[in-house]
């Protein structure tokens, strides 16, 4: 057999880039690096570093390979019998609402479709919610309130064609890197295009911003309320559009005038200068071609829906919608959050963009599914769902492709709920996650490289994910596991799909069933598709109704919406602050988000040593003034405490956050660090309309952790009994690298015992310096290094690449090596510093050196070191090195 090249879709962010993967003919050969698909309209061949390093995440030592029930490996038959017997019994004894699915925007549309069908049509409960509740729920409700449907009007081209791009609560430079690169390119081509970033933090996205509004967290709605009243005051309203295509304008304008009567009141509420808000207003007034591009800084808020509608109001009032380069554009995070929305896989949706409240919808879906037990009303949204689990109302929960022990707010509550639940079923690819640790039944799922199906990206584009590799062990597709349970519950005929394309065709048929243009989501063109056509599907934007195979680039071009009278709705908005306010007890405002090279709870990106080089440990970003006041040094350990939990993180002192504000990334779990799950700190506060948690906000105390030593451990084997104040596992290709913090003066003996002293025997090398309080320990077995530990009273960075290279698999240690291990790294080994460019592994020290040697631009750095010349997402960071040149020159 020869190598095969397959086109598929990247499993990370909602940009939905096409990738090409060549699978070698022999399974023993590694899969070579993946490349971008030049024909895919999302990326035209480009990939960011997460996408381009996908091949390095394919082989994992930690796959879940067999079903497990109560800690024991069992056959699929036995696991499926246990699951279905318990569901039957619980439904019989307590009714269908004692069962719940908690799904994910990372399963495929086909997986989602069968889960939704089983719960809502056959078991009879609408308790089907998903991690999209934490992600897109406010955007969905915002669109539905305004348009009568959950319709993203714009496409990626619009981002390139607009003259004004307002990015609200989005750090796209890191979170949607390829789209951001398209924007960077467009701005380069058309320097008149303006970019505004609205974010309380200064982020990498600000790199291309003509204006950055560092607003007080939560105050976005006031910015747009002011823009609405200013649009009226300056006569830039599209009065024809307002009259013909909308309702509710006057009341909404009156509200805007009441809550943001003038520039100074609006600027004061938002915590920005009048000049900067005026600058935004002028940019807004100057062009019709404007896009408002929004993400989690808008959605994850107790008033997230109102923020979305404040934005949409401005677009409706000025007719900036349904036109090239204009519109309110909610960008999706997960690769298939859109697919889940299309299927109706949320507790307050029914199916195929119909709701329980849509007249006739429930009967329509029942007829189509031939469903015996249709749910009749909304189910429980994520936070309420886990509360119902804790209260014992939900007795069986099936969690699929999400890690709620890390991502839901107040993880202590999630733990209590899962401990209480009679049966927790977890379908995952990984054996060890914070959530599989809570599962009674673990079902091994196929992952990205093995699954087959469809996903929809942020611009409504449906693309195929295609299976590349055989499933490892006994892993099975999620849709298969759901259908097997359905059959055991007695619903054979409705769930006897022979392959995944049959599910897609049924989904397409439901979208078109009795639709006749009433519903936006119609992919009827695919309702009779053959397997061959499905396999050959090229990316296409929905709606794709019968007779329009080319799909639909842009929505609402005819000004007709999906409300009963086809008119869009203005919603009067009163801007709100976050629910929890700063107080003397909880003085710091805590914000959360993402870093460039990690994905969510690190179950995939944590397998790639390359991706952990950019940010190797969890951190809390804190303003220099606050750090000074609290006696916190850079990289020193900090304790954060909120009303619901605690976390221990390293300090990153930076002007990027405002005084009184702190920020942490969300990615580290208990698999990677002892106390870095930041959702521990977030209270279960949510938007009353969307149920989306205010995950970007908590009030906290910040404390320095003093009298400690900082260290690192390099070990050939994983260490299981680490009893440090803080530890963090940094993924490495060579062995196991831990960063640790222990009490000052911790005894060498106690450290040795944590390092498997008894087990390994061997010779201990030891160096302690009573003056500097440094400790260095190494264990050597048969002239090979098995473990080394360095401790130091200050949080100094020790380059450990060299140490790692000396671990067991390498050559026997020389006398010089033994000396170097104890006193320091040999001088001939280059210390790259912290990695800035992940694609080419270029570190800060190499960049500084090149600059000292005369390089004075990002292009120059690219020429000499190659950094920034592949995916480009490190360019904002590279730019920050350039001023150093000026410093050196004086
Ligand atoms: N590298 C990487 N990329 C990803 C992901 C990942 O895990 N890693 N996840 C994907 C997913 S699922 C999602 S949803 C997206 C999220 O993509 P983004 O929303 O771009 O990412 P975040 O970092 O969560 O948050 C964006 C910004 O919101 C700001 N913010 C906080 N509060 C407010 C506020 O009140 N107002 C405003 N205007 N801004 C505020 C934060 O400071 C932060 O910079 O990323 C996707 N892409
Ligand atoms: N404080 C705070 N909390 C947040 C956020 C924030 O910004 N701040 N962001 C929120 C947002 S926007 C999101 S999207 C969530 C993300 O949070 P989660 O959804 O909890 O995070 P993931 O790591 O993506 O979890 C996916 C799990 O599914 C597994 N998996 C991957 N592919 C498959 C598959 O095909 N089948 C199965 N069965 N399993 C699979 C992975 O191994 C992993 O365990 O976090 C939310 N939580
Ligand atoms: S931007 Fe990067 S992570 Fe997102 S889909 Fe494209 S390659 Fe994947
Ligand atoms: Mo998300």
UniProtKB/TrEMBL annotation:
InterPro entries in the record: Asp_de-COase-like_dom_sf, BFD-like_2Fe2S-bd_dom, BFD-like_2Fe2S-bd_dom_sf, CT_Nitrate-R-NapA-like, MoPterin_dinucl-bd_dom, Mopterin_OxRdtase, Mopterin_OxRdtase_4Fe-4S_dom, Prok_molybdopt-oxidoreductase
SUPFAM superfamilies named among the record's database cross-references: ADC-like (SSF50692), Formate dehydrogenase/DMSO reductase, domains 1-3 (SSF53706)
Domain 4Fe-4S Mo/W bis-MGD-type: 3-62
Keyword 4Fe-4S: yes
Gene3D superfamilies: 2.40.40.20, 3.40.50.740, ADC-like domains, BFD-like [2Fe-2S]-binding domain, Dimethylsulfoxide Reductase, domain 2
Pfam family, one: Molybdop_Fe4S4
Domain of life: Bacteria
This protein's UniProt keywords: 4Fe-4S, Iron, Iron-sulfur, Metal-binding, Molybdenum, Nitrate assimilation, Oxidoreductase
Obligatory cofactor(s): Mo-bis(molybdopterin guanine dinucleotide); [4Fe-4S] cluster
Family the UniProt entry places it in: Belongs to the prokaryotic molybdopterin-containing oxidoreductase family. NasA/NapA/NarB subfamily.
Name the record gives this protein: Nitrate reductase
Record organism: Marinomonas sargassi
Higher taxonomy: Bacteria, Pseudomonadati, Pseudomonadota, Gammaproteobacteria, Oceanospirillales
């Amino acid at each position: 057999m020869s190598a095969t090249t397959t086109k598929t879709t990247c499993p990370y962010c909602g940009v939905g880039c096409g990738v090409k993967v060549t699978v070698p003919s022999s399974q023993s050969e590694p899969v070579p690096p993946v490349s971008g698909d030049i024909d895919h309209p999302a990326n035209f061949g480009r990939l960011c570093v997460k996408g381009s390093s996908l091949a390095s995440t394919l082989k994992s030592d930690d796959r879940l390979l067999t079903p497990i029930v109560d800690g024991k490996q069992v056959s699929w038959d036995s696991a499926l019998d246990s699951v279905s017997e318990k569901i039957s019994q619980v439904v019989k004894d307590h009714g269908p609402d004692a069962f719940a699915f908690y799904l994910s925007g990372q399963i495929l549309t086909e997986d989602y479709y069968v889960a939704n069908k089983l719960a809502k049509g056959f078991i009879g409960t609408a308790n089907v919610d998903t991690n999209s509740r934490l992600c897109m729920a406010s955007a969905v409700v915002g669109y539905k309130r305004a348009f009568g449907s959950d319709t993203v009007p714009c496409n990626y081209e619009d981002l390139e064609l607009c003259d004004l791009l307002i990015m609200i609560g989005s750090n796209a430079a890191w979170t949607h890197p390829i789209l951001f690169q398209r924007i960077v390119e467009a701005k380069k081509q058309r320097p008149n295009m303006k970019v505004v970033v609205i974010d309380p933090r200064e982020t990498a996205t600000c790199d291309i911003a003509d204006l950055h509004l560092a607003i007080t967290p939560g105050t976005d709605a006031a910015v747009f309320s002011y823009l609405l009243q200013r649009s009226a005051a300056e006569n830039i309203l599209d009065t024809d559009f307002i009259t013909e295509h909308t309702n509710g304008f006057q009341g909404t304008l009156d509200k805007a005038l009441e809550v943001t009567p003038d520039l100074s009141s609006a600027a004061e509420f938002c915590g920005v200068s009048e000049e900067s808000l005026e600058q935004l207003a002028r940019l807004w007034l100057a062009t019709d071609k404007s896009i408002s591009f929004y993400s989690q800084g808008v959605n994850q808020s107790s008033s997230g829906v109102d923020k979305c509608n404040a934005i949409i109001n401005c677009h409706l009032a000025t007719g900036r919608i349904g036109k090239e380069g204009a519109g309110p554009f909610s960008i999706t995070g997960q690769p298939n959050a859109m697919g889940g929305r299309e299927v109706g896989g949320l507790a307050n949706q029914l199916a195929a963009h119909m709701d329980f409240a849509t007249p006739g919808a429930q009967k329509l879906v029942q007829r189509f599914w031939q469903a015996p037990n249709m749910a009749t009303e909304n189910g429980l949204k994520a936070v309420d769902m886990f509360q119902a689990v804790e209260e014992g109302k939900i007795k069986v929960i099936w969690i699929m492709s999400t890690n709620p022990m890390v991502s839901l707010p107040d993880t202590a509550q999630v733990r209590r709920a899962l401990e209480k639940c009679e049966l927790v079923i977890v379908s995952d690819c990984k054996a060890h996650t914070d959530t599989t640790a809570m599962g009674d039944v673990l079902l091994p799922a196929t992952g990205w490289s093995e699954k087959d199906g469809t996903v929809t990206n942020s611009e409504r584009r449906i693309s195929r994910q295609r299976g590349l590799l055989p499933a490892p062990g006994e892993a099975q597709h999620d849709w298969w596991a759901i259908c097997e349970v359905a059959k055991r519950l007695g619903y054979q005929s409705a769930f006897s799909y022979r392959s995944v394309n049959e599910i897609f065709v049924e989904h397409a048929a439901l979208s078109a069933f009795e639709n006749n243009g009433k519903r936006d989501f119609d992919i009827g063109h695919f309702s009779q598709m053959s397997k061959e056509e499905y396999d050959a599907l090229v990316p296409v934007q929905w709606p794709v109704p019968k007779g329009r195979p080319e799909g639909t680039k842009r929505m609402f071009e005819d000004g007709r919406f999906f409300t009963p009278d086809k008119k869009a709705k203005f919603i009067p908005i009163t801007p709100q602050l976050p629910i929890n306010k700063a107080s003397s007890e909880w003085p710091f405002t805590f914000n959360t988000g993402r870093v460039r090279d990690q994905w969510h709870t690190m179950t995939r990106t944590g397998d790639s040593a390359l991706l952990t080089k950019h940010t190797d440990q969890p951190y809390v970003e804190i303003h220099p003034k606050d750090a000074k006041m609290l006696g916190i040094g850079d990289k020193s350990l900090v304790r954060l405490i909120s009303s619901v939990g605690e976390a221990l993180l390293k300090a990153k002192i930076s002007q990027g956050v405002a005084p009184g504000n702190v920020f942490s990334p969300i990615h580290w779990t208990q698999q990677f660090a002892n106390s870095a799950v930041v959702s521990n700190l977030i209270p279960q506060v949510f938007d009353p309309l969307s149920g989306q948690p205010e995950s970007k906000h908590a009030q906290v105390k910040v404390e320095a952790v003093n009298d400690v030593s900082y260290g690192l451990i390099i070990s050939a084997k994983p260490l299981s009994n680490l009893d440090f104040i803080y530890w963090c596992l940094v993924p490495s290709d060579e062995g196991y690298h831990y960063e640790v913090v222990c009490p000052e003066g911790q005894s060498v003996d106690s450290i040795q015992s944590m390092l498997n002293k008894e087990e390994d025997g061997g010779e201990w090398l030891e160096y302690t310096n009573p003056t500097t309080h440094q400790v260095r320990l190494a264990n050597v077995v048969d002239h090979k290094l098995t473990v080394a530990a360095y401790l130091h009273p200050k949080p100094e960075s020790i380059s450990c690449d060299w140490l790692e290279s000396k671990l067991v698999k390498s050559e026997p240690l020389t006398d010089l090596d033994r000396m170097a291990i104890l006193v320091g790294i040999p001088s001939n080994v280059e210390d790259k510093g912290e990695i800035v460019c992940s694609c080419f592994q270029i570190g800060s020290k190499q960049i500084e050196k090149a600059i000292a040697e005369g390089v004075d631009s990002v292009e120059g750095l690219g020429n000499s070191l190659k950094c920034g010349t592949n995916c480009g997402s490190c360019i904002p960071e590279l730019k920050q090195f350039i001023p150093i040149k000026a410093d050196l020159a004086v």
